Amino acid sequence: MTENENYHLSPERQLTDAEKKLVWKKPSTHKVSEEEQRISKEIKRNWHRGEMKIANLLLEGDAGSGKTQLAKALSANFGLPYTKVTCFADMDKSDIIGAILPVISSERLEKMEPAEQTLWKALYESDGFQSISEILMEALGITQEQAALKMKQLLERAAVENNDGEAIEYRFYPSEIVRAYQNGYLLEIQEPNVIRDAAVLMALNSALELDGSINLPTEIIRRHPDFIAVITTNRSYAGTRPLNEALRDRVHHTEKMDLPTKEIMIERVMAKTGFQDGKMLGILADMIVVLDRTARANAIKGVAGMRSFFYWADAIAGGASAKESLYHKVIYKITTDSEEIKLLEEALKNHGLLASLDEAEIEQKKKRKSDDAVEIKTWGDIDDTGFSKDNQIEEKGIALKKSADGDESSSRVSEDDSTHMERSGLGEDGSPNYHQANPESMSEEAKQKERDFRKKLNREARELISDSIHQKVKLIVHRPDYDEENQQEYVRLCQGLMPIVQEIARKTLPYLEHEISSDFSRNRYYGSKFQADSVAYKDYKYFAKKRPPTESPSLVVGLRVDESASMSAYGRLEAAKRAVIAVYEYCQLCQIPILIYGDTADVSRLEQMSIFAYADFDKADANDRFRLMRIHARSNNRDGMALRIMAERLAASPQKTKLLISISDGQPKAMDDYTGSYAVTDMKQTIQEYERKGVTFLAAAIGQDKDVISDIYGNERFLDITNLQEFPAKLVRMIARYL
After folding, report:
1. What is the mean pLDDT of residues 146-156?
2. What is the arrangement of strands in the sheet containing 56-61, beginning at the earlier edge strand?
3. Which residues have C-beta within 8 Å of that of residue 317, sequence separation ≥ 6?
4. For the chain, how are helix, strand and coil distributed in percent, rounded to 5?
5. What DSSP element (H or E) covers 695?
6. What are residue 60's phi and psi, to 5 degrees?
7. Higher pLDDT, 228 or 295
8. DSSP E strands: which ranges in 263-411?
């Protein structure tokens, strides 16, 4: 494909710095498709042809067929800022147009806390064409869900303080759609075919006219000449309906997006994952196609597409079993029903693909053995001159297999170098050991994102404890990596667990089907209906809004693992790992956001508290399951600090039910001061504080201090685990009760 500049639609247009950041940058792994090339040429050719201009696109097809990727690629080709909006069933006009919010007077603003003043000022000083959530996301560096919750908290605070009877002013904040429409962005409108309200679709219909306009409460805005709408819809999936005829008629170009050809599928996976085994990838591609066709033929709701192919191939490249990962990466995404799984397995068997997969996996193992058998002889101490600690972390290691007579030929490591060796996940100085299992499959961009996320976790955790008794404790949050040994351990511990987890999930999933809501939620700060009878309360809640659908379980789970040294006794550590695996996989099957942290204390003077972020709902990663195997018995435990950090994260989540489970074998003890009644009092106060914020606590006691743990958490929150073998299933069933 020619350079992106050749497709820029308005070369003379000067974007702001903020808009430049919104223009999508193609990663090195991006492969230009025939659709992308053809659409780019047609839009460029017709851009200045008046009524023949192509500015509304429809991409309709299978999940994972590359619709969003194509929309982003067009942003890069045309040099237009990219943004998107995801539609839902009960969307109303206020979601399309924007919201009206109260304006706080300067006198009352001065009486608020400094942090609240900063947020209100950020709102008032905005240019009026940023969504509320985006303003708060930029000001605080938080997620969209956290921004919505923060806005609600601010308004509630403002309402409480509004008791002087002063007149109320309002300001209009346009939606992301309006922002893109007026500023000339490329807007992806995802799944408008789920919207039920015809009035909402009519608003979209009017906006999609080439000379269209949108009527706002404050003005009428016209369509920017550079505005491009890309509508992306899944075809024939649950919850969707035929796309509105009037909306479809306003589309200038439509693409039927199916799975690409086998050759292109393989090419894309090789580019994205770095996995170059063409024979294995060919078999995987055939299996994806067969599974997708079988699911459709048997009315199975799930789908097998390119996303499944990417993650499956990447898992195999990282050393996972192709047969084992088939279920976690592909089949369980389609269905967890045992009868439906049998249909899918039968289809693969009838096409001879299971046998082909077994043969390819045997060949792959032989090749790996052959590669591992190479002996590299070195003599003398390892010279690490010129290598910084950071470089050692990122550098790809070389695994050496020592021969039977190779005692003298193996490298010697001096005492000074011993701090770089693995010791329960930490070096002697308390620094984390990161070992990338498959570095070649991670781009530099992905590595940088991982580093940025780790920094973000550290920054947020330190802020969360800044006003607590733990504020002077030196804290480090680690994001452990994984290696092939962790993957093998995960597979071993999974044995016998998954059938139990799947059965519990199978019984749970029918209760998660969302009910259609057509009623209105009253007493809202903004909405599509004004309630005159609510004005007398002077609490700003003067509107009614359609209740949004519950598309996913209204539950978020936090799992805290005590990694104190005593966990190594009596098989507790392995029991904890099996329980964590069971909870993690159950939450994946039921699409429940999951936060899994481990903690220990007193690693060193410079690291008095260590948090290990194994799984985080802000950065879900399919490989988190392997990170869980880094859970170790380490040092002491400062329970109150760990609970506070996790509880604050859960309290800020948008889910209705917030469940925090602590797996522990002993009472809190860290440093000289954090022990006995002082530590117990801190834990009790933390539990009480966050229960008032809506967090539910459970304690799973698996050690000798069960009476102490029961006293701290209370009998109603206490789970006595006597039989460690029953622990995983017992814990999963407990979580299922909260759905």
Report:
1. 65
2. 82-86, 186-190, 228-234, 56-61, 253-257
3. 273, 274, 275, 438, 441
4. 50, 15, 35
5. strand 695-701
6. -120, 130
7. 228
8. none
